[in-house]
Amino acid sequence: MFEIEKINTAVLNRVECPGTEKHYKITLPDGLLPDCLKDGKARYSVMIETFLPIAERIKKFQVYEDDVWVITFPKCGTTWTQEMVWLLNNGLNFERAKKHSLEERFPFLELTGALNLIGGDSVSDVENLSRPRHIKSHLPPMLLPDQVWTVKPNIIYVSRNPKDAATSFYHHYRNIVGYDGPKEHFFDAFLSDNLIYAPFGNHVLDYWKLRDELNVLFLTYERMKRNLRAVIDEVSLFLGKSYSKQDVDALEEHLSVESMRANKSCNMDALVEWARKTNYSEDRKRNDAKEFRFIRNGNVGSYREDMNEKYVEQFNDYEKKITADNDFSFNM
Ligand code: A3P
Q: What b-and-e string marks burial along 25-34, b requiring 16 or more CB atoms within 10 Å of the CB?
């Protein structure tokens, strides 16, 4: 079904590191795309070698109509959205949310195929969840299970502007994936669509195309930052739930950056600790200041702290190319 081709570019070889190596271009011909995406063009996505054994399994994965998926390109606010969605779909049960980590409540479908050395079988973990299942994924539509298009589970997609997403991804690469190189090399790999889950443009535009489907809700990180309350109301409506003003006040407070950073159930401290032990170079282990928190800056525009003018311009051009011939904008 898929055409699979190893990628071997200089720009990519410079950023390969313990947590992510051996990248492949996985292509699906136009004829095999769901009708709602067919436009005469094949789609491809970059994935790493550990994804290859699970690609077909995910295509054949059983989907239920009460599944709730949160899907994003990495670093676009997945964790934040998962916590909101899980609580809204579980009667705002803060006690249960505190007892069970987000990874347990809302597991990452293709984790085994997205981070080397993590081990386990993330697809089976999701298969075995009790319903309604809450599923995290970064997959583009072309790699989703076939049944998604017939069963139509709830899908909440979140996009983010590429400058902040790439900057956040750089910190993730450094602190989770074990990348030790310069940020410029990382930005070059992002801009040339060589990183896992690339191309960013097709990812967001294909979900944008689905935005009018009744089972799809399209959100942006920027809107969540601007007016979280309005987004909470929209997600509640989407899930068929209704909460009092006081309940929504409590949820809004629970979802603040400060509160989530202090919340062991969703701040990913265990993942950061695992990464330090597994992926860091000896040099990094010795000199690491241990300052990284998964819930890091949590702002719009924080790319300015890491990106020089030359890269800001290149990213502006990259954004313009993505939005050139459509009604999508990164300012929504
Ligand atoms: P920054 O690195 O820019 O701070 P993901 O969950 O998809 O990996 O996305 C991580 C990004 O979401 C990080 O961005 C993180 O700080 C931000 N984030 C997580 N929780 C948040 C919250 N409650 N409010 C705002 N941003 C949050």
A: bbebeeeebe
